[in-house]
Specification:
Layout lengths: L1 H20 L9 H13 L5 H36 L5
Helix pairs in contact: 1-3, 2-3
Length: 89
């Protein structure tokens, strides 16, 4: 039984690490802000629509990453709720 908990913990930790590794850097501003700026630049003739589409694609990717991290956190909470709390460091 302990081995099963350990395997689940390892899988959850690996998933959490993958989710955090793919999170965009906060130093460049939020994806929402970059998308809004790209849209304003396009509307004022300062950039192409490609820049807007790229910013919106990044916004969508960040949104998916956030949902994945939330799902992982819920899975960890469930795991801890069924008695695996002593195994997560």
């Amino acid at each position: 039984m302990q081995n099963a908990f350990r395997e689940v913990r390892d899988a959850l930790v690996a998933q959490l690490k993958r989710a955090s590794a793919s999170t965009p850097s906060a130093s460049r501003g939020s994806p929402h802000d970059r998308s809004a700026v790209a849209r304003l630049r396009y509307e004022n003739g300062l950039s192409s629509q490609l820049e807007v589409l790229d910013a919106e694609r990044n916004l969508l990717a960040a949104s998916r990453t956030g949902r994945r991290a939330a799902r992982t956190a819920r899975a960890i909470a469930t795991f801890q709720g069924v008695g695996g709390s002593g195994l997560i460091a």
